[in-house]
Amino acid sequence: MYGDFAYVYDLLMKDVSYPKWADYAEALFKKYCLKKPKLILDMACGTGNLTIEMAKRGYDMTGIDISIDMLSCAMEKSTQLGLSVLWVCQDMRSFELYGTMDAIICGMDGLNYIIDSTDLAKVFSLVNNYLDPYGIFIFDMSTPFKLEKTLGNNLFYEIHDNIAYLWENKFNKKNETCTLDLTFFINEYEDMYRRIEEKQVQKAWHIDDVLSTLEKSGLEPLGVFDAFTENPPEKTSQRYFYIARKQGNGGFQENS
């Protein structure tokens, strides 16, 4: 999975403000964590941009991803910056850690790549297993509206001096998945270009199904918000953020 795509992934993400993502996470930490988190797990960390941004802010970060190529890019970045981050090649449906985490995050619609409800329950159960009783779980998902109406059955492209890409999507209403077909052309020498093709599938998860799966996995939902706010989600929202904690923490209170 991913392979050469890992080395052009950051081109697709060039407009993402990782400091904004980190600011939002820290605001949620302050409000919902009983203690200030130190140990944080970033699931499906990709090339490590958000993980590294959090490490810059003093958090003890662990990043897991299923792609060794993605992690190689992440390790190169953190090494160049002199940051100590633990990078682990693991599938988030079956990951193992040495202890609990004060917070677990999964950004950039990483959980949309889980397309089976049984697998989603596996991820949430593992989060419940490794999450500190006073910690929180923060993740986002691209919304059904975004996958069907914004991305689905559309073609996007960009052309630069040394690279160009085509991004064609197809939404399947029957199983509510969006297939993403990406083709990159990379100028490697004079007029010679290398072609990289990548196909991915994302699931359009509905809020009720996600909340139900969280609860069945031993997690208590604390909120579902429109992107980077604490506003209620809307039908036309492009991204939802979910917050959850372990069930049965009777002593929980919001931090002031």
Describe the structure concisely:
Helix content is 29%, strand content 35%. It is α/β, with parallel strands linked by helices and 256 residues long.
Structural description of this entry:
With 256 residues, the chain is of the alpha/beta class. The chain folds into two domains: 3-142 and 205-246, Rossmann fold; 146-203, N-terminal domain of TfIIb, CATH 2.20.25. It is 29% helix and 35% strand. The chain has seven helices and eleven strands. It has helices at residues 9-12, 18-32, 49-56, 68-81, 117-130, 144-151, 207-216, and strands spanning 39-43, 60-65, 86-89, 101-106, 131-142, 155-159, 163-172, 177-189, 192-203, 219-226, 239-246. The strands form two sheets. It has a seven-stranded mixed β-sheet with strand order 3-2-1-4-5-11-10, with helices on both faces. Strand 2, helix 4 and strand 3 (86-89) form a beta-alpha-beta unit. Helix 2 (18-32) crosses helix 3 (49-56). The chain is globular, with a radius of gyration of 18 Å. The N and C termini lie far apart (43 Å). Residues 250-256 have low confidence and may be disordered.
